[in-house]
Amino acid sequence: xxxxxxxxxxxxxxxxxxxxxxxxxxxxxxxxxxxxxxxxxxxxxxxxxxxxxxxxxxxxxxxxxxxxxxxxxxxxxxxxxxxxxxxxxxxxxxxxxxxxxxxxxxxxxxxxxxxxxxxxxxxxxxxxxxxxxxxxxxxxxxxxxxxxxxxxxxxxxxxxxxxxxxxxxxxxxxxxxxxxxxxxxxxxxxxxxxxxxxxxxxxxxxxxxxxxxxxxxxxxxxxxxxxxxxxxxxxxxxxxxxxxxxxxxxxxxxxxxxxxxxxxxxxxxxxxxxxxxxxxxxxxxxxxxxxxxxxxxxxxxxxxxxxxxxxxxxxxxx
Length: 318
Fold this sequence. Notes:
By secondary structure, this protein is mainly α. It folds into four domains: 14-87; 90-154; 175-247; 249-316. The chain contains 16 helices and eight strands. The chain has helices at 19-32, 36-39, 53-61, 69-87, 94-107, 111-115, 127-134, 143-154, 180-193, 197-201, 213-221, 229-247, 254-266, 272-275, 287-295, 303-316; strands at residues 14-16, 66-68, 89-91, 140-142, 175-177, 226-228, 249-251, 300-302. The strands form four sheets. The chain has a two-stranded antiparallel ribbon with strand order 1-2. Helix 9 crosses helix 12. The relative contact order is 0.06. The model is unreliable at 162-172 (pLDDT under 50).
């Protein structure tokens, strides 16, 4: 009878828990307020084989001065990730809860439906977390999670109801219906200005809280058929101002270029310094726009942009 030799056990790297590692473990525990047992809660299927809370406790007390490298790496990563999330947590105020409840009632979209088919869910956010917010089971929450929830809920239209006595088709929550005419105007502004939703809001002033490019793009694509009145009014006004400015473009003549170069020579750190600390910058003007005049990539410019830059340089040169 031939005896088969047992396969050799795989050697596992071991590290010494020196003073620096011990201090790091202690700091993570104190910063997060989470002990070994809570750290490994619900992680039975993902933690390395053989790792347990007793083992981590011995590292903390110093009764065990060595550890498997994969064990230590896993524990440090989990504690570090929790520490990072703690830094980005904010109090769940009544204002936040009111806004979340408002959006849920307006859309009649449940937390389950909200996250269904979503491909950009922030790490750590789940339906259970959302319910904990509504049931006031947590006093703090990730700022990223709150911003994502509000943004996603706002991208949904008002819920439809059967016509009531007044024949209303939509519940009135401060939202208005985006008519085909409104949608066409938005597309016209976008085409005329050659500016998309992201660029429209980039550097814009007075943006209503919560408005973002995703919401605007949903209007344009038809993904959302209603809009918060404050949002649509701001976007229409801002795009209209840019569109009207595009109608007053003038050629950058040799005389204009000479005036611009003279201003550039007199003002340091041109063009960024020209716009620094300014509070009255015309919509759409940026250092990139100014640079395009000098590089020759732009043959024309908005009249109000040119006048502003030349006047601003005179003020800075006084």
